[in-house]
Please model this.
Amino acid sequence: MPELPEVETIARGVDARVRGDRIIDVWFGTHREPFKTPPSRQAKALEGRSILSVHRTGKHIVLELGAVQTGRAATTPSKQEASSADAQWIVHLGMTGRLLVTLPEGPLAPHTHARLTLASGREIRFVDPRRFGRLDFRDLTRRDGFAGPGAEPLTIQPAEFAALFRHRKLAIKAALLNQSLLAGVGNIYADESLFRAGIRPRRRAGQLTRSELERLRVALREVLEHAIRLGGSSVSDYVDAEGVRGFFQLEHCVYQRTGEPCRNCGSPIRRIVVAGRSTHYCAKCQR
DNA sequence: CATTTCACCTGGTGGC
DNA sequence: TGCCACCAGGTGAAAT
Model:
């Protein structure tokens, strides 16, 4: 379901609701797929920890966690900085995952795999029908904090961006989807940014000119920033932490618009398959 | 090593 | 209505 703008929207919403709260109880479902770290170990490690902050890295949501508090429950939210976190809970939403902050009495959605009861009375829920999402606990006293290999598309500079694609023979669309190059770009924003930059998805990454690459870098950043402002794209059932849909799907120029007229020139949008994924483009506007 | 293909899951849609 | 093929926002292992 979620690419960078959707994950950013969710992370911001969750942060606003649970920052400074504390995890007092953890329930996990019985399906094994969502758990990178065994669920029994994750549950034990999460219980009692305070949530210092929540943020996005690539398509991952990272909860920065403070040490387990002993004795009486703290009633005042922690003022600690994320830098003092000694653990992280890392959530990847896969294709259909949702991370919701609800009240415990709220209706339980099918395919709910995790419920974290908080001291405030709220609850964090992870729901994922297809079970492609992943939940992972990381002990920062034993290893470094989570960081994917891919660069952040919102802040990468021109030279570094160009270097990612140099000498590569694969299609630029496939390269954009490779999370170890850029973190956070998925099928929607790969297609939309290539349209905005006027570049055909099948062009070989290493053959793009310097100016085409710079157009692509700027187009990608603008598309992602615009989508974040609109709360992401709700193609089928994506919702943010409050269950609210995004609006960027209304502004898609090519994604899932096969046969419809190009918003720029009117020619029909084409659908092809690149890197095993549906790919949409305008043959006239993209060269 | 770089690149491509496919399996992993459930659910929705559209054709017959 | 039922059955089936196909499609879906992702990724990582296996094959090439």
Residues 4-139 of chain A form a domain with the N-terminal domain of MutM-like DNA repair proteins fold (CATH 3.20.190.10). Residues 33, 94-96, 111, 128-132, 168-170, 174, 236, 275-276 of chain A lie near DNA strand B (CB under 10 Å from a C1'). Chain A has six helices and ten strands. The mean pLDDT of chain A is 94.
